[in-house]
Amino acid sequence: MAGKLPNFLCPSECVGQLDFVGLDYYWGINNFRITSIQKLINAAVGRFGDAPVWPQVFYYILKFHSRLFPDKEIDPQLQRIPTKAATTYQEIIKNRGV
Q1: Using CB atoms within 10 A of its CB, is residue 39 exposed (0-12), middle (13-18) or buried (19+)?
Q2: Cα end-to-end span (Å), the chain
Q3: Strand 20-22, strand 73-75: pairing
Q4: Distance from C-alpha of 49 to C-alpha of 37, rounded to nearest angstrom
C-alpha cells in the first residue's frame, strides 16, 4: 500500500508490496436527471449495457492513484465492463496520457 493507512490496516512491512494498482470505478452520474439515475440503478442490479459513464471522475481517479503509486502500473480493469464504457475510458487514458 502507499503507507497512508493505520498500522493495524496495513503493517509497515506491507508498505510498497503491491505489484500493480487495480481500479474498480466505472459508473457515475453528474446530475440527478431521471434518465441518469435509472442508468445507475440498472448498473447496480447487473444491467450494464447502458451504464452511466462519468469520464472526468475516472480521469481524476487515475491521476490521483498515479501520483499515490508513481512506480506502479495502474490497471483500470477495462475488460470487465461493457464495450461502450470501456471505449470511453480507453480514450481518456490515451488522450490524457495517464
Answers
A1: buried
A2: 20
A3: parallel
A4: 15
Per-residue pLDDT of the chain (98 residues; tens, 9 = 90+): 567 788 888 888 888 787 777 776 667 777 888 988 898 888 888 887 777 777 777 788 888 888 888 888 877 766 556 666 667 667 777 766 55
At position 50, the amino acid (one-letter code) is D
Q: pTM of the full predicted structure?
A: 0.57
Q: In the structure grid, which three cell numbers stand for residue 72, read together?
A: 506502479
88 and 55 Cβ atoms separated by less than 8 Å: yes
Inter-residue contact 13 to 1 (CB < 8 Å): no
Distance CA 61, CA 57 (A): 6
Residues 16, 19, 23, 24, CA torsion sign: negative
Residue 89 burial (CB count, 10 A): 21
